[in-house]
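Collaborator request, handled under Task 6.
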Amino acid sequence: MKAFSFNYIVVFVVVIFFSSCDKDPVIPNEEELITTFLYVLTPAGGGTPVIMNFNDPDGDGGLAPMISGGVLQSNMSYTGLINLTNTSVNPWVDITEEVREEATDHQFFFIPENVNLQVTYDDTDTNANPIGIATTLITTNPSEGQLKIILRHLPNKTAAGVNTGNIQNAGGETDIEVIFPVRIQ
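Structure tokens returned to the collaborator:
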């Protein structure tokens, strides 16, 4: 009986030892908190930039985000740059750089609603597929509406229309979606 008890204790200790050596699982792409989203539009011929701003310092839940859109000139071309940060930590985290580093896994989509503008991509990943951190925005006639910007993680960049900005076949998961009010005058 003592041999059985001793063997049972040894097996129990070995099982406990090896199970406690397991490392925590590595999450390959843990979602980052984006508290600030800036879309800076600079007129092609120079001039004062238009800054569209989303700010949600406490993240999802809690207080509602503050969103300010922009007033654009009709028949104008703008150079656009997106900047994403997480300001809830110190020091702040530059999420734009993380998106750039993981460019093959990310793409921005620009969806104008009731506003006369078009956005084209000015940057690509290592596979020559669009990213959307750098863009050109072109306005036409005066109008008022909104510009929805969506950052997708793991979109199917080879699906029909995705490389031209059509989100319909993109798939993937939305990292952030912001709707900016826009007026073209």
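The cover message to the collaborator said: "The first strand starts at residue 36 and ends at 43. The two ends are 92 Å apart (CA to CA). Please let us know whether this matches your experimental observations."
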